[in-house]
Write a structure and sequence with these properties.
- The chain is of the alpha+beta class.
- Helices cover 15% and strands 31% of the residues.
- The protein has 4 helices and 28 strands.
- The strands form 7 sheets. Strands 5, 6, 7, 8, 9, 12, 20, 23, 24, 25, 26 and 27 form a 12-stranded mixed beta sheet that branches. Strands 13, 14, 15, 16, 19 and 28 form a 6-stranded antiparallel beta sheet that branches. A two-stranded antiparallel sheet has the order 1-2.
- A hairpin with a 6-residue loop joins strand 21 and strand 22.
- The longest helix is centred in the N-terminal third of the chain and has 26 residues.
- The protein is globular and about 80 Å long.
- The protein starts with a helix and ends with a strand.
Length: 361
């Protein structure tokens, strides 16, 4: 080996040693990922936890009930049934009201109210009742929804309307007795019942239309917050001071729970307290027609209203643009949306004033 070659070889060895030294220093100064050192300098592998997966959003329901806005697995196309429910003390607790999409409460004779219950989206099989008679303004309420009217008897004026105008109706007394029955645990006339299956069978036998154009109600988006002043408790006076309907807002369930004279108003079928996501109180003109106390109730002119939802209240008005449409609730000319769920309407007289029939906190 000559001197020049020897010198080059030494330089290469030195360069290689230098590179190895740098590599060793770099590795000793770098801690491996996913490891920790214990006090004995032993290297222990650790596992980085996987991030929690984002929860899958609830799928949007394919269908919604037209009168409640609630999601459904299949479309609700059945023609509504408007069932006249007795609200006399001896008839309570009633059966089936928790399955109604909409309930209207209005005065009958003697200062006691009748409940016009609209069944459209329910497929419940339990009994409904007690069922009582119908009046002209009760016919009008049911027909707002294009319903088959379900009742037991009628006033003279009511019978005249049903027969002369060929209304779609099922009357236990005159034309559909086979689709009702009497229960033994109550005395007549507070013991007449039926169910949706029998009533739809009766409507089919009479060749009434099975589907109709159901009015479309306006509903708020899911999770929308209601506007208005606080209103956690509501009391309604119809006529008699010793007959009081009241509601208390349940923030967990997001509904108003119904009571009568301070006691929960219960559905006998399931022991559940009646409740609604929306409460509407309407002021209308009432006129006494005879010495029995039969009434005419204005359902066309419009007037003051209150809308209660989510523990809030909005002062508004009720409007009905035609005999073919339902009553709608508006504020400054715009229809107010309901919270998806059941709606209870209450019609009170305008005498002495609308405000005299309502108290809320």
């Amino acid at each position: 080996m000559n001197e020049k070659t020897h010198t080059g070889w030494k330089a290469g060895v030195i360069l290689l040693a230098f590179i190895l030294l740098l590599t060793a220093c770099g590795q000793s100064g770098k801690k491996p990922q996913n490891t920790v050192s214990n006090e004995g300098n032993e290297i222990i592998d650790t596992v980085t936890p996987e991030p929690e997966p984002e929860p899958e959003p609830e799928p949007e329901p394919e269908f919604r009930a037209p009168l409640t806005g609630l999601g459904l697995e299949e479309e609700a196309t059945a023609r509504p049934l408007a069932i006249m429910i007795n609200n006399y003390g001896a008839a309570r607790p009633q059966s089936g009201l928790t399955e109604a999409d909409v309930v209207w409460e209005v005065l009958a004779e003697g200062g006691i109210t009748r409940l016009v219950s609209i069944f459209q989206s329910s497929k419940a099989t339990e009994m409904i009742g007690p069922i009582r008679s119908i009046r002209p303004y009760l016919i009008e309420m049911g027909e707002m929804y294009q319903s088959v009217l379900v009742h037991a008897g009628a006033s003279n004026d009511g019978f005249a309307i049903l027969q002369k105008q060929n209304k779609a109706h099922l009357d236990e007394i005159t034309n559909a007795g086979a689709y009702f029955w009497r229960e033994s645990f109550r005395k007549a006339p507070h013991n007449l019942y039926s169910n949706l299956e029998k009533l739809r069978e009766g409507a089919s036998k009479k060749n009434y239309k099975e589907t109709v154009e159901i009015p479309v109600m306006k509903f708020a988006e899911e999770g929308a917050a209601a506007a208005g002043a606080d209103a956690q408790a509501v009391e309604i006076y119809f006529s008699l001071k010793d007959y009081r309907v009241s509601y208390a807002y349940d923030a967990d369930k997001k509904v108003y729970l119904r009571s009568i004279n301070g006691s929960p108003h219960i559905d006998m079928n399931n022991d559940q307290q009646l409740s609604a996501a929306n409460l509407v109180i309407l002021g209308t003109n009432h006129k006494t027609l005879d010495n029995v106390g039969r009434l005419a109730v204005d359902l066309s002119t419009g007037g003051p209203a209150l809308l209660f939802q989510q523990g809030k209240v909005i002062e508004c008005e009720w409007v009905r643009t035609s005999a073919e449409d339902v009553i709608r609730i508006k504020k400054d000319g715009e229809e107010l949306p309901f919270i998806p769920g059941k709606t209870y309407y209450h019609i009170v007289p305008m005498t002495p004033t609308f405000a005299d029939h309502i108290k809320y906190e």
